[in-house]
Amino acid sequence: MWFKNLKLYRLAPNASFSAAELEAALEPLAFQHGGSQDSQVSGWLAPREDSGLAFMQHGQILLRLQTEKKLLPATVINQASRARAIQIEEQQGYKPGRKQMKDIKEQMTMELLPRAFAITHDTHVWIDTVSRWVAIDAAATARSDEVLGLLAKTLTPFPIMPLHVEMSPAAAMTLWLTDDEPPAGFSIDQDTELRSTGESRATVRYVRQTVDADEVRRHIDAGKQCTRLAMTWNDRVSFVLTDNLDIKRVAPLDVLKDNQDAQAANEAEQFEADFALMTGELARMLDDLVAALGGMRQETK
Question: Which residue among 8, 121, 149, 174 is buried most deeply as judged by most CB within 10 Å?
Fold first, then answer.
């Protein structure tokens, strides 16, 4: 198993918890299916069928948040509300006003929820108690905020800090492109996005295409910065770095896939081997990436 996206944070220097302490903290917020009137519920679920709510291995922790959401489109609510409004108009002799229509919509939502389809999605969290990384496998900020919100209810005091680096990712990526010189251990791949820093927000994207350094300089002279850059670390892991310090499209390359396929004889051992491989590689990659961005700032050592 490999995370596809990394929303990055730091584990607070004084944060520490045993397996028993973590299990006890997670248990009150374990996942339970929602009732008939619940539009959305979330909770912790075992990352592996035979594990506890936290899978722990050599200082690495894996958590799994499951969210169940009822699918109730606004068009369905509006259609049902209009039909109910017509009935009420016939009864009272005049059309419902704005406040009454709001009440009707709320009532129809409550009536329709028990019949709505429910879908679930999982979001995984990796906590590295050795290198102090916290990563959420989420592409959208709303999804990571959901995880952080439940973690804040679960762990007291809240052990997670923002990640700050000395050099802004946009400035660093722009410099790497203009100098045609990526940081040590990294290579630049073919997907690039350049965006204007002015009000126009004009954007140029290169997809599966190598960007010529002179062409990049012309865009930068016109007021653009690099906001997304595809890169590879040590010929082992490819990814896309964004100006928000998000890491997307994470993928192990063939040298790791071959090693991954040959490690285990059964499903449980394969899970453990995959998790060990992923966390080991990504921790080293993140250390190198932060170093390339000038190191961390605003973190108590």
Answer: 174
Partnered with residue 272 across adjacent β-strands are none
Q: Which two tokens stand for residue 126?
A: 């990796």
Tokens 């917020």 label which residue? 29
What residue numbers bound the domain in which 86 lies?
Answer: 78-113
C-beta of residue 248 within 8 angstroms of C-beta of residue 136: no
| Together in a domain, 224 and 246 | yes
Separation CA 77–CA 165 (nearest Å): 46
β 7-11/54-57 pair status? unpaired
Q: Round to whole Å and give the CA distance between 82 and 33.
A: 31
Distance from C-alpha of 138 to C-alpha of 147, rounded to nearest angstrom = 9
Count of the separate structural domains present in the chain: 3
Predicted local distance difference test score (pLDDT) of residue 180: 85
State the pTM of this model: 0.85
Alpha carbon dihedral 93, 95, 97, 102, in 10-degree steps, equals 110
d(CA 225, CA 210): 17
Residue 59 zone, left/alpha/beta (φ > 0; ψ -120 to 50; rest): left
Residues 33 and 143 grouped into a single domain: yes
Mean pLDDT split into 10-residue runs, the chain, 301 residues: 95 87 94 85 92 93 94 88 90 90 89 85 96 96 95 93 95 91 93 86 86 83 91 96 96 77 70 93 97 82 41
What phi-psi label fits residue 30: left (phi over 0), alpha (psi between -120 and 50 degrees) or beta?
beta
Closest residue by Cα to residue 239 from 206, 183, 282 = 282
Q: Do 204 and 108 lie in a common domain?
A: no
Query: What are the distances in angstroms from CA 168 to CA 72, 193, 226?
Result: 41, 16, 11
List the one residue out of 74, 80, 69 whose CA is nearest residue 107. 80
pLDDT for 298: 65
Can you give the length of the chain in residues? 301
Strands 117-128, 60-71: pairing is antiparallel
Centre a 10 Å sphere on the Cβ of residue 126 and count the other Cβ atoms it contains. 20
